[in-house]
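Long-time lurker, first post. I've been practising inverse folding by hand and with some scripts of my own, and I keep getting stuck on stretches where the structure tokens seem ambiguous. Below is the full token string for one chain I'm working on. Before anyone asks, I'm not after the true native sequence, just a reasonable design that respects the backbone. If someone could post their per-position residues I'd love to compare against what I wrote down in my notebook.
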């Protein structure tokens, strides 16, 4: 009777939310708050003489919705994983910087552009050691020869290949003072780019932390997490500096 009175004072498109307690069929011992949308459908049929039906539409559990809205977005573990991956790339690049000897690994950082995007040099070629000062690069697709040549020259590893038949001959420069200085500059640039990426990862973390603060994260807890984030980036920046110092000494011959 109460529901009829509600509907009798509304038009047929009226939708009224009702909140009440309802046991879930899957768990008879559980009672939670549910919300239903109550609406009155138009009568069917040609004559329209039949009465409209009251339809109950159930929304998601209100408590679940509120819980999802309050979920934390900042995750220190995720930030740590990002920074670890960034540092790993630096160490991999430094590993390819061998001084004074022909080693295929010195070409690991070379990426070759092509019509479908780009690909690592090793996927498009076969690289062998001809002698202690020379690498031979056999290109699988002869039409890519000039593109591969240009990619090696632009890779900032101080190598100048020469087209030799269907492949490339890559002389490894003798170790001179000038060459060592160039390689140290390359290593320094790699270190600086790595630090930039680490700072960007920190900024992303701070943005997530700011969102959590707006969603009700206590200020003292937010400050603690921010401090932990700063300690984390300080740790990784120090590892970058240590790696550069070690590589610089190696290049200098110290």
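-- Answer (accepted) --
I ran through it position by position. Result:
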């Amino acid at each position: 009777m109460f529901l009829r009175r509600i509907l009798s004072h509304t038009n047929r498109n009226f939708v009224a939310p009702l909140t009440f307690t309802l046991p879930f069929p899957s768990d008879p011992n559980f009672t939670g708050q549910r919300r239903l949308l109550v609406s009155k459908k138009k009568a069917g049929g040609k004559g329209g003489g039949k009465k409209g039906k009251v339809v109950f539409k159930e929304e998601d559990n209100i408590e679940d919705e509120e819980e999802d809205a309050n979920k934390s977005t900042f995750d220190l573990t995720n930030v740590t994983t990002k920074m670890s991956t960034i540092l790993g790339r630096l160490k991999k690049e430094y590993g390819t910087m061998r001084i004074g000897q022909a080693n295929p690994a010195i070409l690991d950082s070379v990426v070759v552009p092509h019509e479908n995007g780009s690909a690592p040099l090793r996927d498009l070629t076969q690289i062998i050691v001809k002698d202690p000062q020379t690498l031979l690069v056999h290109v699988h697709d002869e039409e890519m020869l000039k593109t591969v040549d240009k990619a090696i020259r632009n890779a900032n590893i101080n190598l100048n290949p020469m087209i030799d038949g269907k492949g490339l001959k890559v002389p490894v420069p003798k170790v001179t003072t000038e060459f060592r200085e160039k390689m140290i500059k390359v290593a320094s640039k790699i270190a600086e780019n790595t630090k930039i990426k680490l700072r960007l990862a920190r900024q992303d973390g701070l943005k997530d932390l700011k969102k959590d603060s707006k969603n009700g994260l206590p200020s003292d807890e937010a400050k603690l997490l921010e401090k932990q984030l700063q300690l984390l980036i300080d740790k990784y920046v120090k590892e970058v500096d240590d790696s550069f110092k070690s590589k610089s000494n190696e290049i200098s011959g110290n």
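A couple of notes from the structure itself: Residues 2-69 form one domain. DSSP finds seven helices and nine strands in the chain. Happy to go over any region you disagree with.
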